[in-house]
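Entry 12.
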Amino acid sequence: MYSKEEIKAIEQYTKGDFRERSAKIKSVIEKNYTNLTNDEQYFIKSCKIIENMFNKYDSTYKDQPIYRGIVLKDDRVVEAYQELTIGQQVVLDNSLMSFSKSREVAFDYARIDDVCEWSLVVQVTDRISNEIDLEKYSHFEEEEEILLNKNLKWIVLDIYIDHNKRNIYLNLKEIE
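Predicted 3D structure (tokens):
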């Protein structure tokens, strides 16, 4: 289905796990896209190839729920999620966003080890945009990863906060 160049871009993009990719994206942004290492330059090129794929391929998984698990370490970010209300519109991230077809994978990624951390599990039950299915070409096939484009808008359908366990559960619907 995907071209050789697209598969190579997916393989490059998925070389590291979610945490490694996030660190690489943060590094590139902090350097303001200048003085990048060869690896960072190739990563950015791969991201651009993948971004072009969103308009090229139709969604094959749009009617199924998808999940994202994150460990939150920044108190300001935790507070921002805790202040969300049902019906509120949000933009989660301004970069490509990894999700999983598996609820269990999301919970694994959201597992907290530190008493200062919070766990966030996002479930998306209704989407408009296309996804890129990375599962067959990823270095981490067991993640059942799909990728959503950046700057998508969401509406909060439900939010549950468990202060004792330091968990936030968020159910979102994509809007235009």
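Annotation: Residues 159 and 167 are 11 Å apart (CA to CA). The domain at 4-175 is CATH 3.90.176.10 (Toxin ADP-ribosyltransferase; Chain A, domain 1).
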